[in-house]
């Protein structure tokens, strides 16, 4: 007696991969910038001006990057659930 065949998973689209890798890269960059700010403050850069140079960009990456990465991951999950639901309905 053989087991019923399980339908094959639907193929992963290019937009899914782009969203996944972009969210991963953005989250990693945000965490790195977050630790750069912590290390810069601990080393004694608090006496210097964090408002000049590259520091405003370094401070903005975690501020905007982490919520954007979270939104991308949620969009990726929704797209994946919809894709798998449609594939299950077809079979």
TrEMBL record:
Entry's transmembrane regions: 21-45, 57-82
Origin species: Microbacterium pseudoresistens
Sorted UniProt keywords: Membrane, Transmembrane, Transmembrane helix
Name of this chain's protein: ABC-type antimicrobial peptide transport system permease subunit
């Amino acid at each position: 007696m053989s087991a019923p065949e399980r339908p094959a998973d639907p193929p992963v689209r290019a937009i899914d991969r782009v969203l996944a890798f972009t969210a991963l890269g953005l989250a990693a960059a945000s965490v790195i910038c977050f630790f750069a700010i912590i290390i810069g403050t601990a080393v004694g850069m608090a006496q210097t001006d964090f408002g000049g140079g590259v520091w405003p960009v370094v401070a903005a990456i975690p501020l905007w990057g982490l919520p954007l990465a979270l939104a991308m991951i949620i969009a990726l999950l929704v797209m994946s659930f919809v894709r798998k639901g449609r594939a299950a309905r077809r079979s």
